[in-house]
């Protein structure tokens, strides 16, 4: 069994909560397309810009999580496949099932109560229709708790891990390169091509014993140049047929830049202490933040005077992200304080 260096262990601990914040921000948007913004400076266009940027960061953050998962998975390979399945059933599959069931129950109860008392911000026709239309199994596979799609893809990759291990052994660096090409070309392979690519990159780093911190170092000037290119791509090139390819290339560099930036911040003791204290909550907050919080906070915002202007919409988006993060974290603290065993179960032993 390999050993993880203190540098890599600290980096993984410190980067998890920043990645989580990007995920939450990306889920607080309304848009579901990449329709480009214009160069106008009016409120509606500025709001559209903030939505485009925020939405794009979710894939970047999940890519970072996938690298960590692949790295740790192949840095500490299991001795037997059956042992692996048993461990992952407790750390991935069981929490996945429990959080989907919690989500179904919570959303159903929220809509029923809102309908009974006439509380418009708590009523969602989409949620009601989905719950009435789909079976429990379909809601599980979907999954109904949207952010858990990453956990679902990770479960698929764990099941396929013996094949991934063989490909790493016999094709070496060619495997992550091929996966990168598949990702950039948008080829459908049954499992998310983006998650698969980043997972395989992390797996290759772990399998070959490379340092995660050392391998994901990006010069500051290159990070800044790529950041400007990334923003331009996301804001103005969303309707081009090759958008997904150039976005994929720029997002790869951005993922590495985030790890590189966090590595630099690790030298700050206050930052490292704060991230270490927040790290145990990441899985819980990730799994719980989109269940009710976002829709309620955003609903309150749009029902308030802020909902009357595009500038207010920008503030609503950020307030929703901030209040959702705080609420989900406080829920974690309460749960871990009064129900430590249940919390550990919901977090797959990570809490």
Write a brief structural summary.
The chain is mainly α and 351 residues long. It is 75% helix and 0% strand.
Q: In words, what does this structure look like?
A:
The protein is mainly alpha-helical and 351 residues long. The chain is built from 17 helices and no strands. It has helices spanning 6-26, 43-75, 81-117, 125-133, 136-141, 149-159, 161-171, 174-185, 193-207, 212-215, 220-236, 243-265, 269-278, 282-288, 293-303, 310-338, 340-346. Helix 15 runs antiparallel to helix 16 (310-338). The relative contact order is 0.16.
SSE map:
Layout: H1 6-26, H2 43-75, H3 81-117, H4 125-133, H5 136-141, H6 149-159, H7 161-171, H8 174-185, H9 193-207, H10 212-215, H11 220-236, H12 243-265, H13 269-278, H14 282-288, H15 293-303, H16 310-338, H17 340-346
Helix pairs in contact: 1-2, 1-13, 2-9, 2-12, 2-16, 3-6, 8-9, 11-12, 14-16, 15-16, 16-17
Question: How many strands?
Answer: 0
**In angstroms, what is the radius of gyration?**
21 Å
Q: How big a fraction of the residues is strand?
A: under 5%
Order of helices and strands: HHHHHHHHHHHHHHHHH
Q: Which residues form runs of ≥5 with pLDDT under 50?
A: none
What structural category characterises the helix and strand content?
mainly alpha
| Number of discrete helical segments | 17
Helical content band: over 70%
Give the CA-based shape: globular
- The overall pLDDT average reads 94
Tell me the distance between the termini: 24 Å
Largest sheet, strands/sense/barrel: none
Note the main attributes of this structure.
mainly alpha, 351 residues, 75% helix
């Amino acid at each position: 069994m390999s050993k993880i260096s203190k540098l890599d262990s600290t980096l993984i601990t410190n980067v998890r909560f920043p990645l989580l914040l990007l995920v939450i921000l990306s889920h607080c948007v309304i848009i579901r397309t990449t329709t480009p913004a214009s160069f106008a400076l009016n409120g509606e266009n500025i709001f559209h810009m903030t939505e485009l940027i925020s939405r794009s960061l979710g894939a970047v953050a999940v890519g970072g999580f996938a690298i960590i998962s692949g790295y740790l998975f192949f840095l500490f390979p299991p001795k037997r496949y059956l042992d692996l399945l048993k461990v992952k059933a407790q750390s991935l599959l069981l929490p996945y099932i429990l959080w989907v069931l919690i989500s179904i129950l919570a959303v159903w109860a929220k809509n029923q109560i809102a309908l009974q008392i006439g509380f418009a911000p708590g009523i969602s026709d989409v949620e009601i229709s989905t719950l009435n239309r789909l079976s429990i199994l379909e809601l599980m596979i979907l999954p109904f708790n949207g952010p858990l799609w990453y956990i679902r893809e990770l479960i698929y990759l764990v099941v396929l891990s013996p094949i991934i291990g063989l490909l790493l052994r016999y094709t070496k660096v060619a495997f992550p390169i091929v996966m990168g090409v598949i990702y950039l070309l948008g080829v459908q392979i049954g499992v998310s091509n983006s998650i698969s690519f980043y997972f395989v990159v992390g797996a290759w780093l772990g399998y070959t014993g490379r340092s995660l911190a050392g391998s994901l170092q990006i010069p500051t000037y290159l990070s800044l140049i790529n950041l400007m290119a990334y923003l331009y791509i996301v804001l103005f090139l969303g309707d081009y047929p090759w958008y997904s390819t150039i976005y994929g290339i720029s997002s790869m560099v951005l993922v590495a830049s985030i790890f590189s930036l966090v590595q630099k911040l690790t030298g700050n003791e206050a930052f490292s202490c704060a991230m270490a204290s927040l790290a145990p909550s990441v899985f819980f907050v990730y799994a719980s933040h989109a269940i009710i919080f976002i829709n309620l906070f955003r609903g309150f915002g749009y029902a308030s005077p802020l909902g009357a202007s595009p500038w207010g919409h920008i503030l609503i988006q950020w307030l929703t992200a901030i209040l959702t993060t705080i609420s989900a974290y406080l829920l974690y603290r309460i749960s871990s304080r009064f129900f430590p065993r249940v919390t550990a179960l919901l977090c797959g032993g990570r809490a």
